[in-house]
Design a protein that fits this description.
The protein is mainly α. Among the domains are: 168 residues, no CATH class; 121 residues; 141 residues; 122 residues; 184 residues, no CATH class. It contains 64 helices and two strands. It has a two-stranded antiparallel ribbon with strand order 1-2. It is globular and about 125 Å long. The relative contact order is 0.05.
């Protein structure tokens, strides 16, 4: 019996939802009829199989689009034929498995409570997975993980076992590495993405499967992990590698290491516990270092808020993690002070050193507190509340309470008028907590600087009380003054009535209350009576002068001890008063010289980083524009002197801003002295740029109009542009170049060549990095015809001798196309030793420095021609005498300018040697300059911050060797000399001599001449702003040149470091072993031993640990910002100065760790490995070869070439595991050191890795 065709064949199939419903309904009716007539229907096996297949095909083929598919799934979910309908989806070849799986997973009916549909759907999904691409499988896995979160986290009812098992089977299939449905890395990434923020993931039933899968990736994570990454520490420079590379980046919220973008390590792979923990230790280390604020915000990825142009508001983003670390640092500083007071075993010297370290830490912390609050990274109320909570705990130290409240006073006094009184309530709570003594605290001795800090708690209370009265919020000051501070409070209240005479006397040498003025200033800086003590300070330094007094006679500045005892608010008020006084003189166009004491005090105030807004920013953005506008060249000269000779730690963008002003030719003055000062300042700014600072601007600062400020390195001076090129070459050689920076470098070079086309000698080009060499080969500069030059000079001299009309002479020789007058002038001196007045008129008409420098270049080239064909020593002597008279007798050109121009001229071969011979003769043969150098070094000290009488000694030097900047017998009125405070020809010559040394190093035949010059003039490095940095750059950049010249290296290191021996303590730079080597004449042999390299590594490691490996130095007036930077540079200088093959030195450093690890405390081994990484990564490439050789040897010999150890490779290379059980292997150390080196490496070193792999392995 068969069914009617009208029943078997349901109506026409439709792709829309209505047709699909009819199809499903027809199939259900057919099934009902079959069940009713089951006994009467004939059944054949083939017919049954064909019928089942036909039914599936009919159901599946009824779906033609996505909408129909979703409707089909919805119908199936509630259909008694659900299983058959779901199976039919597998037969549809028109729909991709990805589309089907998306429809199933998006079904609203897919819930574990709908168990049959849930289980069948997951079964179908599992069958579909092989046909889904990996992206689709990843989406299925993500949704499956989300579905897991629907199950109850605690307990599992019997009814839920099957649904969860079905989901587990699906995930297990996806996780199956043999199935290869999805890269395992993606699976791990997805598993970790929801952990640990979501406490319900993973579900306890899935934990064995999840754990097993994650554990299978621990070895993968180990392979891409840096050994002891959590113990590595950067060198905290002003701007260095740590600012540029991303290896130190932390998430600002969690302080976890960032791997890529905003992803931290625990989101990627199952890394070790130490790798995924918050790196609080790294941030603590950075913040403890002086001048570390910029690096701290760079590591955390924080952006300084910028003011909105419309609202003038700068919104900021709080960083609670930073706030917490800073709180811990404050508490640590207090605990350290408490421990020192209790430790009776320390020697007096050691105790004093540690106390000084603690004072330096507090000074640094107070500066950081102000910085982070002003930029809105932390909130003062939250900060002081957290401090209160920490210090309320039992057993917390109270010893550093004066230091703490003094640090808080720095912020409170400056911001109290801009905030409501309740913002400072927690500070009052702190005072009540810390000052709970039962007996009154005695009034301190006002001759002790610690008195300022002892009285700070009472000063805070007075300031807050005054603010409360001002705002009528006395009830808000709900914390009474602690009874133990009653005497302090009464003493400070009485100070408000002290008369001016007593205050003035207290600051004198004979006064017995030296710190009375600072105490009064700090207490009343926000009240009207503050004008009396600040007025006394201004009168002391010549800011307020009586009518019968000459400001020039006020020479003694405020000592650093006094300035250190002034709060930030007082220092800001003082610097504001000084700047206002200067601005008044500028506006009134007063020619009266400023008091030397005022200028020196202003210079000392500029070193405080917390005064940046009113200090350096105010100087650049307010004072300088006013000076330019008014043409106050005397004031400009003073400001440039301050920049050149007094400031040590100015951020690069401020220095580049000043360089931008000077290079863009903003000054049109024809004043010779001023032009010389501008050129000298520009030269120092360019040569003083750090290797990491010579880079394209990343985040351009905004000017007052809110527009980006462009930075221009180059200008219209050929000599200075040549120095820019040399600085670029040095920076690229040492720090490398990002790929995207190559365009910027070529743009700079193109602009330089457009403004000042020039060429370079081959011996200079050979030292340039490849990018510069290629550029100058493609863009050769003009070549001078030296033979024609000499004949032209002869013709011009004949013309000078034959012409009689004064007007015609002036017109002819001052013509812009004629650049030979200095040559004529020199020949005039050579022939007659007499100068006619008309020559001065010609010079006056030539005028500006730019035009005269063109004549100077011609003179330098002509001198080389003259000396090349010289006829005997007598003629040479006459030539040098004439040149010397040009400088010292007739004052036509200064020595430093002439030597700079001569050293930078382009000469090849023998002509280059002649050029350097002229320089040598000019510096050594006449006594004029040598006498000045000798007297200057003998009478003056570079430690100006310690001197009271620098100006008087400097004035005596100028009186003995007066410096004039123009001829004496001028036919017109001479230029009025500008007041000089810090500069002289000796100091101006130092950056020029730096360039001279480098140019001599490039030409091997003049090596002996270089040694002679160094013998005579290296004493000037006593006054060099960055002597060790210069030595480091020289030995690094010219490593190939000096590699085989140990005596020359020895001469450089001994001369430059030896120049500082009288002003530096013993042990400040070089090790005892190396000093002994330097002391033995021309000995160049070096008997190395591993202990020497161990001591070098240990010294750097100790410095980074904060354990004082070097004598005490005031980093505010040092070329380096902290001991870690100092230790790195002096270590690298010493290593590069060794008479040892660089390859061997690299090997010795590795062997030092292998040999010495048994003598190093176990917990310090990572610090030593970190130190090795720092040293090697900051040495030239040749020193890396030792590491490369060790790596090649390890990879090409057992056990790595043929594993024969009982432990697995992963066990051997797990440094932390092997380190803990004292079973270290050389391979373990080699890997850890390699990781450390490349972690600290820069762009140029990382870029060599592919070459290393290709060439060595």
């Amino acid at each position: 019996m068969s069914l009617p065709s009208s029943v078997v064949e349901s109506g026409p199939q439709s792709t829309n939802s209505e047709g699909l419903s009819k199809t499903v309904k027809g199939k259900e009716e057919e099934e009902g009829l079959k069940r009713a007539f089951n006994l009467y229907l004939a059944k054949e096996n083939d017919e049954k199989e064909g019928s089942a297949k036909r039914k599936k095909n009919e159901l599946g083929q009824s779906i033609q689009d996505t909408d129909a598919l979703r409707s089909f799934v919805a119908e199936a979910a509630n259909s008694p034929r659900m299983e058959e309908m779901m199976e039919s989806l597998l037969e549809n070849k028109d729909l991709s498995p990805r589309v089907v799986s998306d429809a199933l997973l998006s079904s609203e009916a897919l819930h574990f409570k709908n168990e049959p549909f849930w289980i069948k759907t997951l079964s179908v999904l599992k069958a579909l997975l092989p046909g889904v691409d990996y992206k689709g499988v990843r989406e299925i896995m993500k949704i499956a993980i989300e579905k897991v979160l629907l199950f109850p986290p605690q307990g599992l009812e019997p009814s839920l076992v099957a649904p969860l098992s079905a989901l587990e089977n699906l995930l297990k299939y996806i996780f199956d590495r043999e199935a290869a449905l999805l890269p395992g890395y993606f699976i791990v990434n997805e598993i970790l993405k929801s952990y640990p923020e979501n406490p319900r993931w993973p579900h306890w039933k899935l934990i064995p499967m999840i754990s097993s899968f994650l554990n299978s990736f621990t070895q993968t994570a180990q392979m891409v992990s840096c050994a002891y990454r959590h113990r590595l520490r950067p060198i905290v420079e002003h701007y260095g590698k740590a600012h540029v590379v991303s290896t130190w980046k932390l998430d600002s919220n969690s302080l976890k290491i960032l791997l890529k973008g905003n992803q931290t390590y625990e989101r990627i792979l199952p890394y070790s516990k130490e790798m995924v923990e918050p790196q609080t230790g790294l941030l603590l280390y950075v913040l403890r270092q002086p001048y570390s604020k910029e690096l701290a915000i760079n590591i955390l990825g924080l952006q300084k808020p910028r003011k909105d142009a419309s609202s003038n508001v700068a919104p900021g983003a709080l960083c609670p993690a930073l706030e917490e670390v800073l709180v811990n640092l404050f508490v640590d500083a207090m605990n350290e002070l408490s421990e020192l007071e209790l430790d009776s075993s320390l020697l007096e010297y050691e105790l004093e050193r540690r106390l000084e370290n603690n004072r330096e830490l507090w000074r640094n912390l107070s500066s950081e507190l102000i910085f982070f609050i002003l930029f809105q990274f932390i909130n003062f109320g939250n900060f002081t509340n957290a401090l209160y909570e920490k210090l309320s705990a039992p057993g917390e130290a109270k010893s550093g309470r004066d230091e703490l409240i003094w640090a808080l006073l720095q912020y409170i006094s400056g911001c109290i008028t801009k905030n409501m009184i309740w913002d400072f309530v927690h500070a009052l709570r702190l005072i009540n907590l810390l000052y709970n003594d039962k007996e009154p605290i005695p009034i301190p001795d006002l001759n002790d600087p610690n008195a300022v800090k002892s009285l700070s708690a009472a000063a805070v209370y007075i300031q807050l009380s005054h603010r409360a009265r001002q705002t009528e919020q006395q009830p808000s000051l709900s914390y009474a003054l602690p009874s133990c501070l009653r005497l302090h409070h009464e003493f400070l209240l009485n100070l408000a009535n002290v008369n001016e005479g007593r205050l003035g006397t207290s600051l004198s040498v004979t006064g017995n209350e030296f710190y009375m003025v600072p105490v009064m200033c700090n207490t009343y800086s926000t009240q009207d009576c503050f004008q009396l003590p600040i007025g006394v300070l201004m009168a002391t330094i010549g800011g307020i002068v009586a009518e019968n007094m000459n400001p020039a006679n006020i020479i003694e500045p405020l000592p650093m001890e006094t300035l250190d005892c002034l709060s930030v608010h007082v220092k800001m008020s003082l610097i504001h008063s000084i700047v206002t006084h200067i601005q008044k003189q500028v506006s009134n166009k007063t020619n009266t010289a400023l008091a030397p004491a005022l200028i020196e005090t202003y210079s000392r105030l500029l070193v405080y980083p917390e005064l940046e807004s009113l200090g350096i920013k105010g100087l650049l953005n307010q004072l300088l524009p006013l000076v330019f506008k008014q043409g106050a060249w005397n004031i400009l000269h003073v400001l440039l002197e301050i920049f050149s000779y007094r400031l040590h730690h100015i951020q690069s963008h401020f220095r580049l801003s000043l360089l931008n002003h000077l290079q863009q030719g903003i000054l049109l003055s024809k004043h010779t002295q001023l032009n010389l000062c501008i050129e000298s300042t520009t030269l120092k700014l360019i040569t003083g740029l750090g290797n990491a600072e010579v880079s394209p601007p990343k985040n351009s600062s905004l000017n007052s109009q809110g527009k980006p400020v462009s930075t221009v390195l180059y200008g219209e001076s050929e000599e200075l542009n040549r120095v820019v090129v040399l600085t670029l070459a040095r920076a690229i050689h040492i720090y490398g170049l990002e790929n995207q920076s190559a365009i910027w470098v070529k743009d700079v070079l193109t602009s330089v060549m457009t403004l000042t086309p020039h060429s370079w000698p081959s011996h200079t080009l050979s030292n340039f990095p490849t990018i510069l060499q290629d550029f100058f080969k493609e863009n050769p500069g003009p070549k001078e015809n030296k033979a024609q030059l000499k004949s032209r000079v002869e013709e011009e001299y004949k013309t000078w001798s034959s012409m009689s009309n004064e007007h015609d002479i002036v017109q002819h020789f001052s013509n812009s196309n004629n650049t030979l007058f200095l040559c004529v002038f020199w020949k005039m001196l050579l022939e007659t030793d007499h100068v006619t007045p008309i020559a001065y008129r010609v010079l006056e008409r030539i005028g500006a420095a730019k035009a005269l420098t063109a004549h100077l270049r011609s003179l330098c080239d002509m001198l080389v021609c003259e000396f090349s064909k010289s006829g005997g020593s007598g003629h040479v002597k006459n030539c040098i005498d004439a040149l010397n008279n040009l400088i010292w007798k007739y004052k036509i050109v200064s020595l430093d300018r002439l030597i700079l121009c001569m050293a930078l001229r382009t000469h090849e071969g023998s002509e280059a040697q002649v050029c350097f011979f002229i320089i040598q003769l000019l510096l050594l043969k006449p006594h004029d300059f040598r006498n000045r150098v000798s007297e200057f070094v003998r009478t003056l000290s570079p430690e100006h911050q310690l001197l009271k009488d620098f100006h008087s000694k400097h004035s005596e030097f100028h009186q003995k060797f007066p410096e004039k900047f123009g001829p004496d017998d001028h036919s017109t009125s001479p230029e009025a000399p500008l007041p000089v405070y810090f500069s002289n020809v000796c100091l101006r010559f130092i950056p020029v001599f730096d360039i001279v040394v480098h140019r001599f190093l490039e030409l091997p035949p003049v090596a002996k001449s270089l040694e002679t010059l160094i013998d005579h003039f290296s004493v000037l490095y006593k006054f060099h702003a960055r002597p060790i940095t210069y030595l480091y750059n020289t030995l690094h950049y010219y490593e190939k040149r000096v590699r085989d010249k140990p005596s020359l290296k020895k001469k450089l290191v001994r001369s430059i470091t030896g120049a500082l021996k009288d002003i530096r303590p013993n042990g400040w730079c070089l090790t005892e072993e190396y000093l002994n080597y330097l002391a033995v004449g021309e000995q160049v042999t070096w008997t190395h031993n591993i202990e020497y390299y161990v001591s070098l590594i240990g010294r750097l490691a100790k410095s980074i640990q904060g354990k004082n490996a070097f004598p005490k130095m005031d980093w505010r007036f040092n070329e380096f910002p902290n001991e870690g930077v100092h230790a790195m540079y002096v270590t690298c200088v010493e290593v590069m100065g060794l008479p040892v093959e660089p390859l061997k030195v690299g090997e010795y450093f590795l062997e030092a760790i292998w040999e010495a690890h048994r003598y190093i405390p176990q917990d310090e081994i990572p610090d030593w490995i970190n130190a090795v990484g720092i040293i090697i990564s900051n040495l030239p490439e040749a020193y890396w070869e030792g590491l490369y050789i060790k790596l090649v040897q390890a990879l090409t010999s057992p056990p790595l070439s043929q594993w024969n150890l009982s432990q697995t490779p992963f066990r051997v290379f797990n440094f932390q595991a092997t380190h803990l059980v004292h079973c270290q292997h050389k391979l373990t150390y080699l890997l850890a050191i390699s990781h450390s080196v490349w972690h600290h490496a820069g762009f140029n070193q990382i870029q060599l890795l592919p070459d290393l792999v290709r060439d060595k392995f």
